[in-house]
């Protein structure tokens, strides 16, 4: 069994995917505020919080678990899926596997491991081996904490097509002090281009000023506003009901 916490009413339903090792509780700074304007669900993935453990699995397995959980609880789409940190991986794979039901993605300082390896590391010069090693350590950590077959999961992430789905990206401002200003600017631009490539013409990319990695804690207002924007855009596109 998996733990699910839903509140509010209205559509589309916002589904909250937490970061590594976290669960529904990690969304407490914004859950009720988003539920004030639409149905909102947070949950604990298998092996987290109040949910039962699961054997070694992939992100796609977890995405399908989530869909079955929502069905069992009587929660109906369409869905806007918000993913923080590692939750981005789960959100993107869920959206690709159930894209007929997903009408928006909110990616909050996500673990865009594929984008980082392909788009950012080539810009790092002599620091590239260090960053490559650090990213591999994160892969290994994620695999252990979440009991994931990470090689298969990253392959699923790379194969996930979310083109056409509206996306809002919130990222913390960061830079590498050992690199010059021009290189840092090129890296910042590459991150934006990388995220815009996920759904060309449908991505709003924003820097969350005043926030660190956990934007929903440091700047909950930005997360709430972005969720509201996606919800209202879906309603507006649907026309009068």
DSSP strand content? 15-25%
Quaternary: single chain
Distance linking N and C termini: 36 Å
* Number of β-strand runs: 7
H-E string:
EEHEHEHEHHHEHEHH
Helix count equals 9
How much is the average pLDDT?
97
Regions with little confidence, pLDDT below 50 for 5+ residues: none
Biggest sheet features: 7 strands, mixed
- The rounded Rg comes to 17 Å
Given helix and strand content, the structural type is alpha/beta
Helix proportion range: 40-55%
Side by side, the strands of the main sheet go 1-3-2-4-5-6-7
Which descriptor suits the 3D outline? Answer: globular
Structure description:
This protein is of the alpha/beta class and 241 residues long. 44% of the residues lie in helices and 16% in strands. The protein is built from nine helices and seven strands. The protein has helices spanning 31-35, 59-72, 87-97, 113-120, 128-146, 150-159, 181-196, 215-218, 220-238; strands at residues 4-7, 13-17, 40-43, 79-84, 102-108, 167-172, 203-208. A seven-stranded mixed β-sheet has the order 1-3-2-4-5-6-7, with helices on both faces. The termini are far apart. The mean pLDDT is 97.
Please specify the SSE layout and strand pairing:
Layout: E1 4-7, E2 13-17, H1 31-35, E3 40-43, H2 59-72, E4 79-84, H3 87-97, E5 102-108, H4 113-120, H5 128-146, H6 150-159, E6 167-172, H7 181-196, E7 203-208, H8 215-218, H9 220-238
């Amino acid at each position: 069994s998996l733990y699910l916490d839903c509140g509010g009413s209205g559509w589309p339903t916002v589904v909250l995917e937490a970061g590594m090792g976290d669960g529904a509780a990690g969304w407490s700074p914004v859950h009720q505020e988003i539920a004030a304007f639409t149905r909102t669900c947070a949950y604990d993935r298998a092996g987290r919080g109040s949910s039962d453990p699961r054997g070694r699995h992939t992100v796609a397995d977890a995405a399908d678990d989530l869909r079955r959980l929502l069905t069992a609880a009587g929660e109906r789409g369409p869905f806007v899926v918000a993913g923080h940190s590692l939750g981005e991986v789960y959100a993107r794979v869920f959206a690709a596997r159930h894209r007929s039901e997903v009408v928006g993605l909110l990616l909050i300082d996500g673990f865009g491991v594929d984008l980082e390896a392909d788009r950012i590391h080539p810009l790092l010069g002599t620091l590239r081996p260090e960053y490559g090693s650090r990213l591999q350590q994160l892969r290994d950590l994620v695999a252990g904490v979440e009991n994931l077959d990470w090689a298969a999961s990253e392959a699923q992430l790379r194969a996930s097509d979310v083109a056409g789905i509206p996306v809002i990206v919130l990222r913390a401002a960061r830079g590498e002090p050992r690199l010059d200003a021009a290189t840092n600017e090129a890296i910042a631009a590459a991150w934006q281009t990388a995220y815009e490539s996920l759904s060309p013409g449908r991505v709003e990319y924003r820097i969350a000023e005043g926030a660190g990695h956990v934007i929903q804690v440091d700047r909950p207002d930005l997360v709430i506003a972005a969720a509201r924007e996606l919800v209202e855009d879906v309603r507006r596109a649907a026309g009068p009901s």
